[in-house]
TrEMBL record:
Organism: Clostridium hominis
Family annotation (Gene3D superfamilies): Sodium:dicarboxylate symporter
Presence of the UniProt keyword Cell membrane in the record: yes
Protein name: Dicarboxylate/amino acid:cation symporter
Keywords, ordered alphabetically: Cell membrane, Membrane, Transmembrane, Transmembrane helix, Transport
Membrane protein topology class: Multi-pass membrane protein
Primary localisation category: membrane
InterPro entries: Na-dicarboxylate_symporter, Na:dicarbo_symporter_sf
Cited Pfam families: SDF (PF00375)
Transmembrane regions: 12-33, 53-76, 88-108, 153-171, 192-213, 225-248, 333-358
Subcellular location: Cell membrane
Length: 426
């Protein structure tokens, strides 16, 4: 019989069973069953094996996705000002988003009180401070293959950006390389899907381990982590985006929100900006944005603008640093902001990729990737919310750019004729 149960449901079941098993193991006396069979046996294989599978995907995924993201900017030159404005807006708001998340993280301190430092499987490499000059030099790989072998994320990113930009500059002459990279990207995304299919089992092992070793303390911290992410998403949407829309265009946000509700229904249920693309575009058409602007800004936004994802990554970085009792210096925080902003270019518009990219952000500042195990169980719910903000940001940018370019029909924006949207959702 073909299983109809969705992945989200399976992850929740994995989480619940893991929690149950963890609490049972916790009360078992030390000995063969508890230590050898469970903690260092079954649970370790399932949980650590899953994290290793995620780590395995990071280097190829980052290389392929950032290269394709940058190479797809081919038409920036032809779009001139619109292209420039859009990209600056996307990158700037992403950096603001992650700063809000990190700021709230340090106020709410979700991971303080939960000590996982004894569970570090690899030595954290954090600590040495670098001068700005050294940091800049260290971003440039003298050997890109070595950068990939060492998993040096900043070097891989800088090489991928140059590689993608060159593909875009060469155009026709580089079409075979571009096609190859596009297929490689597809293959990497499919691998993410395959690995994600075993997520319920991985989550089962990871959560069982967490609750066997830390008990219910983990619950409170996880809830606080979720609060940080949700609060940062809300602040970003209500304060930053609404403020930018009002400040730059003078438009009231209400007509847009009404149209966006239908887009949000799709982003929320699919957790994929990509899946929501057609209805997002329609919502922008209904809002009076010209096709010239929206046909460029909306697909580009779905590809490179992920403010909600950056928020999760900022909050998760603070959370993971805190549970492993590792202090983040100002230099490391700057590196996290830059890396997560660049990571958003490489995050595919499908469910769960933000979490894989998080392991890249963590590695850049030397935090233990194992920390992802704890937040994995609650990630799907957050993914639904952050994807909604990812798309919300694309729409706000589109409205601002189209108004500033006089490519905007204000009368249509304020009219209540939503027939196009109704057609899509029907
Ligand atoms: N699901 C997100 C999106 O499609 C990406 C992520 O954060 O995983 O926008």
């Amino acid at each position: 019989m073909k299983s109809k149960m969705g992945l989200t449901t399976k992850i929740f079941i994995g989480m619940g069973l893991g929690l149950l098993l963890g609490l049972i193991i916790r009360v078992l006396p030390a000995g063969f069953i508890k230590d050898t069979l469970f903690l260092n046996g079954i649970i370790k294989v399932l949980g650590t094996g899953f994290i290793s599978a995620i780590k395995m995907l990071v280097v190829p995924l980052v290389f392929a996705s950032i290269t394709c993201g940058v190479a797809s900017l081919a038409n920036i030159k032809s779009l001139g000002r619109i292209g420039g404005k859009t990209i600056v807006f996307y990158l700037f708001t992403t950096a603001v988003a992650i700063s809000i998340a990190i700021g709230l993280g340090f106020i709410i301190n979700p991971g303080v009180g939960l000590d996982m430092s004894s569970l570090v499987i690899q030595e954290p490499t954090i600590g040495e401070s670098q001068s700005i000059a050294d940091l800049i030099i260290s971003i440039i790989p003298t050997n890109p293959v070595k950068a990939m072998v060492d998993g040096d994320m900043l070097q891989i990113i800088s090489f991928s950006i140059l590689f993608g930009a060159t593909i875009s500059i060469l155009g026709e002459k580089a079409k075979h390389v571009k096609n190859f990279m596009l297929s490689l990207n597809e293959v990497c995304l499919k691998m993410v899907n395959i690995v994600m299919a075993i997520a319920p089992i991985g989550v089962f092992g990871l959560i069982a381990n967490t609750f066997a070793t830390t008990g219910f303390e983990a619950f409170g911290s996880l809830i606080k982590y979720m609060i940080v992410v949700l609060l940062a998403l809300a602040v970003h949407a209500v304060v930053v985006y609404s403020g930018l829309l009002k400040g730059f265009t003078g438009l009231s946000i209400a007509p847009f929100i009404k149209r966006f509700a239908k887009v949000a229904a799709v982003t929320f249920s699919t957790a994929s900006s990509g899946a929501a693309l057609p209805i997002t575009k329609k919502a922008m058409d209904d809002s009076g944005v010209s096709n010239k602007v929206s046909s460029f800004t909306i697909p580009l936004g779905a590809t490179i603008n992920m403010d909600g994802t950056a928020i999760m990554q900022g909050a998760a970085t603070v959370f993971i640093a805190q549970i492993y009792a590792i202090e983040l210096g100002i230099g490391q925080i700057m590196v996290v902001i830059v890396t997560a902003t660049l990571a958003s270019i490489g995050t595919a518009a499908v469910p769960g990729v933000g979490l894989v990219m998080l392991s890249m952000v963590l590695r850049t500042v030397g935090l233990p990737v194992e920390g992802i195990g704890l937040i994995m169980g609650v990630d799907r719910i957050l993914d639904m919310c952050r994807t909604t903000i990812n798309v919300f940001g694309d729409c706000i940018c589109t409205l601002i750019v189209s108004k500033s370019e006089n490519e905007f029909d204000e009368e249509k924006y304020y009219s209540s004729d939503d027939t196009l949207i109704d057609e899509v959702t029907a």
